[in-house]
Structures are given as C-alpha cells and as structure tokens.
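Case study B.
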Amino acid sequence: MSFGQVLLVAVLVLPALGAVAVAATPRDRAARLVGTVAAALTLLAAVPLVFGGRSWFAWSAGAPAVRPWHELDLPWVPGLDLRFHLGVDGISWPLVVLTALLTLLCCAYTLWRVPGGGSGRALVALLLVVEVGILGTFLALDLVLFFLFFEVVLLPMYAIIAGWGGADRRRAARKFALYTLLGSVLLLVGVYVVVAAAGTADVVALTGGGGLSRGTQIAAFTLLALAFAVKSPLWPLHSWLPDAHTQAPTVGSVVLAGVLLKMGTYGLIRVAVGVAPEGARWAAPVLGVLAVAAILIGSLVCLAQDEIKRLIAYSSVGHMGFVLLGVATLTTTGIQAALIGNVAHGVITGLLFFLAGAVKDRTGTGSLAELSGLRETAPRLAGLLAFAAVASLGLPGLAGFWGEAFAVIAAIQVGGPLWTTLGVLAAFGGALTAAYFLRLLRRVTHGRPSTAVGRVGPALAGAELTAWAPLVLLALAIGLAPALVLGVAEAPVNALVGVILP
Amino acid sequence: MNVVQSVDSVALLPAYLAAGTAVLVLITDLLLARPRATVVVAALGALGTAVGAALVGAGGERRTFCVGADCSWIFGGRAALVGAVVALLTLGVLGLSVPALRAGRSPVGEFCFLLACSMTGGVVLGAAGDLITLIVALETLTLPLYVLVGLRRGSLASAEAAVTFFVVSVVATTLSLLGAALLYAVTGGLHLDRLGALLAERAELRDLPLTTAAVALLLLGLAFKVAAVPFHAWAPATYDGAPLPVAAYLSTASKLGGVAALLAVVQRALPADQTGPVLALLAVLTMTVGNLVALRQRRTVRLLAWSSVAQAGYILAPLGALALAAGRTVEARDAAYAAAVAYTVFFVVLELAAFAGVTALRPAGADGGTLDDLRGAARRHPWRAAALGLALVGLAGLPPGLAGLFAKVTVVRALLDGDAAWLALVVAVNAVIGLAYYLRVTAALWAPTPAPAPTLPGGAAAVPLVGVVGVVLAVATVAAVVLGVAPQLVLDLAGR
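Model:
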C-alpha cells in the first residue's frame, strides 16, 4: 500500500476507532478528550492527502474524467457490484478537510460544554460516526459505496438531534430522518438504474455518461437529483432543514449546516452530473429555476424570521441555492463557484451557528424580539457575529463573495433570456441576503440592551475562541486567496466539464 | 420394471436427523422425564440437523425417489440452505423458550417434540420435488404450530390465537390442495420440474382457464402461509397471542418455509407470465398495508407482526419483476429468485435477533407487552437494548444494521435488473414508512422513563437475564453483524 492509500484508509478508520474508543472509555471527560484526539488525528491524516499523486498524464481523449490523486480499490461484495473504492481529488479534498476540521472543532467545543440531554461521551462518539459517514461519502468512488456512506450519517445525526436538541427535538429529528431517508432511497434506486444499465458502479468509468442511453440518463439524473435535492436541500424539498437546524444542539447544527448539506451538492456534481451528463443538460433549466427560487424564497423567509437559529437555517437554503445555480449552469465557472461556495458556506455557517449557540446559551433565548444591544454588554461576541454575518452576505474579500458572485457570472455567461434572467434574479437575491443579515445585526447587536442581554458578561471562554478562531481565519483566507480551493479544483473541474459538454 | 426403488439415504440424511430428533425427544421425555435433558436432546438434534444439511448440501445435488427423470426429493444448494437455516432457527427458538419452560408455562416434552416435528417439515420442504411432498411438508411444518401457539397454560389469548391460526391455515391448505389437484387434472403431472416443462412446451395447456384458476389457487394458498396481504389477517392476532418464542418461530422459520414453498412452485412449476402479475400485486399490497398498519401499533409483538407482514412484501417484490417481459430473461429470473432467498435469510436473522432482544428485556415467560414497557430499557440494560436496537435498525434497512441494508439493496438491484423500476420505487417509499415505526421502538428504548412507574409490572424493574436467551441474542446479533460485513456469503448461497 502506498502512503496515499494508508492516508485514505486512516481518514476513515481513525474516527471509527475513535468512536469505539470513546464508547469504551468509562470517564466522561476523558472520553471526550479521546474523541477530540481522534478527530485531530483525522484532520492530520486528511491534510497531507493533497500532496503527491498528481503525476497524471496530459490531456488526452482516452483519459478518464476523474483522476484521483490517491486511490484504493478492493473488492467487497461482487454480488451487488460493490467495491471498496476510495479516492480523493481536487473536488473532494477541500470538503474532506472542512469535514475533519469542523468535527475537530465540535469535539473540542464539547470538551468545554456538553449540551443538556445526555452524556458528552455519547455525543462525541456519535459526532465521530457522523464524520465517518460524511468523509466516506466524499471519498467513495463506487456508486454503491457512496450510497452506503450516505446512509451511515442518518441515524447518528437523528440521535444527536433527538438526544441533545431543543424543546421540540423529537419531532424535528423524526422529520429529518424520514425526509433524508426518502432522499437516500431515491439515491439507491437511481444508483441501481445506472448500475443495471452500465454493469459497473465505478465512478471513474461512469463519469461522462459511460455509454448510457439518453432515456437511462434522464431517469437516473431525475432520481439522483431528487435525492441530492432533499439533502442539499433545494426548495421545495427543504422543509426538514429549519426544524432540524433550530432544534439541534450547537455542535449538531454546525455539522449539519457545515458539511452534511455538502453531501447533497457534492453528490450532485460528482454523481448526478458526472454519471448522467445528458440528463443534467436536459434538467439544467429546471434546476436553475428551482435554485433561483430557493435563493429568493430563502431570503424573503429570512426577512420575516424572529428566531436567530431559524434565520441562519433558512439562510442556508438561500446559500445552497447559489451553489445549485452554479452547478446548473454546467460550466467551469459555475461548478467552481459551486465548490468554493460549498466550502465558504461550511466555514461561515459553521461559525454563525457557533455564535448563535453562544448567544442562546448566554441569554437563554433566541428570539430576535428579546435580543438587542449585544455590543453594549458583549462587544467581542457582537463583533464576531457581525464579522460572520458580513462574510455570509458576500462582502468582497471574505469567503462568501466568490461563490455567489461567480454563480451569477456563470449564469450570465451561459446567456440566453432564461439564464440572464436567472442571473439577474440571483443577484437580486444576493441583495436580499444583505438585507436580512443587516436586519439581524441591527436587531441583535445594536440598540439598548434588553433584559436578557443585560445579564451577559463580556468574557469569551478560551474553548470558544479556540473553536471559532480557525473558522474566522479560514473565512478571511478563502476570501483573500480563493486559489486555496480553486487551485486544487481547477484541473478536475475542467476534466469534468470536458466530458459533460456535448 | 423394477418395483423396488433404490433410495439414496445420504440425500435423506437431514430429514432422518430432524425426524430422529423428534422421536428422541419424545423418548427422552418419557424415560428420563427431566426437562433439562429433553431440551438438551432437542437442541443437539437441531444442531445435528443443521450440520447434516450443510454437509450433504456441500457435496452437490442429490436426487432420490425418482420416476424416470422426475424426482420427489432433490437435495441441492437451496434445500441445504433452507434446511440448515430452519434447524438453526429452531435451535434459537428453543433457547428463547428456556425461561418460559422453566417458569412452567408450557409442558417441556410436548413443546420440544412439536418444535422438532415442525423443524422436520421445514427440512423436508426445501428438498420437495413434487406438489404432494411440498404440501405435506408444509403441513408438517404448520400442524405442530397450532398446538404450540395455544400451549400457554391458562391464557385465553393464546387459545384464541391458536383457533384463528388453525382455521385460516386449514382453509389455505385446502386452497393449495385444490390448486394442485386442478394442475394434476390439466397436465397429469405433479413433479415440479415436469409441470414446468409441460406448461412451457404446450401453450394450449397454459391458456386453459382451468390452468389459470389452478395457478391462482395454489399461489393464494401459499400466500396465506407467508401472511401476504390480503391473506394476512391471522398473523397479528396469532403472533400476539402466542408465547414469545413461538411468535419468533412463526415469523422466522415458518415464514422461511412459506417462502421456500412459494419459490419452489414459482421457479420450477408455474408459468412466469401468469404468476408474475399476481406476485407483483401481492408484494405491493403486502408491504404497503403491512407498513401502514404497523405505524399504529402500540403492542410490541403486534408491531413486529405487522412489520413482518411488510417484510414478506419485500421478499415477494423481486418475484414481481417476473410480471414484465424483461424480468423473464434467464439472468433476471435467477437474480430475482436469489434475491428473494437472500432477503429471507437476512430477514430471519434480524427478526430472530429482534425477538431475542424483546425476550431478553421482558420478564421470564411474559408476553411482548406494550411499547411503553420497553421505554427506557437502554438505561437498565444497555447491551440488550443495543442488540435489539441493532436488529430493529437492520429491519428498517439502515446502517449500522448493514445486513438489512444489503437485503434491501439486493431486492432493489434484482428489480432494476428486471426493469421493474416502478416496483423498486414502491419498495423505496415503503422503506421510508418502515423507518417511522422502527425508529419509534428504537427511540423508545433510549427515551427517558417518564417517572418511576410502579404500576407497570416488570416494565420498570430490571429484568434478570436468562443465560440461554443472552446467548441466543448474542449469536443472532453477531450473525447479523457478520452478514452485514460479508453479505456475499448469503448471496453466494442464495444463488446456488
């Protein structure tokens, strides 16, 4: 086994072993520490995946469109066309690192504060299992394996929401589980529509259509896109998201918004568009219209929200709309915008949920009506909230800008009345995004301190700063140097676009 | 003509072993009259039968009782699989019933004897090569169960369950027999392969209305046995009234027997263009009705019963692909049969684990109780609850219950290979409905107990674990985990 293959396996095995070790450690605090160490080791294994393995051959007609830097391919269940085929490339690596980072931050945060409801030990173990599922989804290069990891996430996340969530957690958790299971069973059918027609489940071989007929591709794309639209989520299949995000504990919301949603958009790019390009071209206008509808409706709903976590949750619907618009254009610019939008949203929304959790923990309320004047009593917390909100609304120089701007540009570049209109409407949606985030800031940080805010002290705990600082820095770094993400993604995206265009 | 048939006793060895077990149990009970010895003899006999079936099956197909090319006893790969699994399930059920037997709720000798008789039926069933052997074997499997269901002393529910089961089952057998008789009238054959060949060759026979009626009657009779909707009404009442281990047997070994019988006639004897649409319809109805009604259940065993009705739908679903022309190519047909067998094996392992989990969490000899009785069980018995949770999640078809996930994957794959995408979508949607109630039970296990509830007898207090039940639970759980990691084992066996 090469070093890269060892790393690939380590990225999945470390959190899995970590979860077992956490469950086996009897003392609660020691167990959380063990979990944090496992998450840190996972991040250490994920980062060096970027090195080596790029000695790929020059562009040629016969070259496959997916050229992983590192690859591991073992037979598992031949009877079901299932191979244990992992690989990482420029499309998946940023998401892998983001997942490892956010899980580490969540575990570290749990060291400091365990949400009420259950033991911190169980929570950390579940977080690590969720991490295994998400990382596996990003690394899988076999459709059936992809589906398998997609499913792994479901129940642990259900348990996190149902065990440690807010007042209405059971209903929210059940809704999350049933909705997303609906998505994954559609994925299962879609995957086997492809496998039955192509006779293989290998993503590398299938990317670009793999000789599937037009009818099969349209059927497969419809099923797969529906599956990923539930997960992303795309309007009108988003209604599980606000409840789940609002009720989940802080770390649950961070993982949900930060990386869980990315499984949908990543799947759309890698699996749905990659495997059924003709279907994607057929469905692109519908996808684009829905994406812009999501942007506009998400923004408008945000303008009317009165609960801070719910507002941030709905803002995810809008942001993922930009990502999906980028994918729908099926151009290099658009897909790159989608990738960087994905990463930026993970970083910024992760930070926003941490901050919203901190505000709720301190004041005991998330209602905008009862929050005001935070900058008077907790200036640093208010400053960070302002930073995250401004980053999220897409201020140039911060991470949120690139994804939104280039999604709009890609839509305009495609041209034609439809896409131009979509681009203009999306840009208008971007302005609405600014409006609701500024409204949020005005309500929460400005004005005279309300009674709930009056009790808050200015201090921030060391653990909080540790958890937030990397996200603040990343939001700045990606904003100033988008090449961090785009540089590694450029070649694979070019290769992908090369095979999906007729 | 030689009137003396040569009999291949090696091929018959598993049947000898199973029947021998029953006789030995009876003698042991009469001579020694020590419950422990009786149970041990039955257990060893079941284990021996499983080993015998596996060994004989490993040596290639053996046929005996032949008239020309047609044989009444064909012991091949599938027969070995069915025989071994039935014997192992019997062993598991025997283990689960130890607490109830020890508590004196049922007479030990009779219980073990009847269970061994039923096992004999199951072992013979897999190898049956003609309709008479098949139906007699199925009856040998079912007949002892009428008594076993009603064997709980002083329980009215148990007696009611037994009568319900008896009446429905007899009607079903009558239908099957009528169907078999009509088929004989049309074709003059009773051997499955011969029937299959005759009906395939002579299209004019297939087009006779009488043939259609015969096929329908035979299928419907067998559908009763697997509790397929609309012939399912007996199952929930019977399961709930029966002692827990017997309910476990009904929903695993008995169901496996029904599936084996159904597969035997569908695969070998009956024309696919006539059985396909019927089976597709049965599958859709069974899974949908089973899941929807299970949503409303408050009693644990009733919920498991309805869920097992729904699971029968998933088992039948791959056969529904035969309804379409594309599903009748040789590969697609074989894939469909193999998928049905594989699903059944995954299912019975998980179902046994689930029943073992419920038994382990309930006081000795108690019935399944309501879901509230299981509430908060994980706080008192984390390991037993975890095993039950794993089994339930597996039945729902989700990780970490990988065995169940692969079972669903197998079915969906077989359907799409047969071009029956609409049926695959029905299965998919049903999996979502199924999760709703499995999740409710699983979540209840970990839910906080509302308040100390002294009114619930046995519900709130810790339940001491009977060693044997613990072993059965552990073995079934380990088997489920192993099958989850290496599903190819089952897929290989099912495809033979």
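Residues 271-496 of chain B form one domain. The remaining cases will be described in the next quarterly update.
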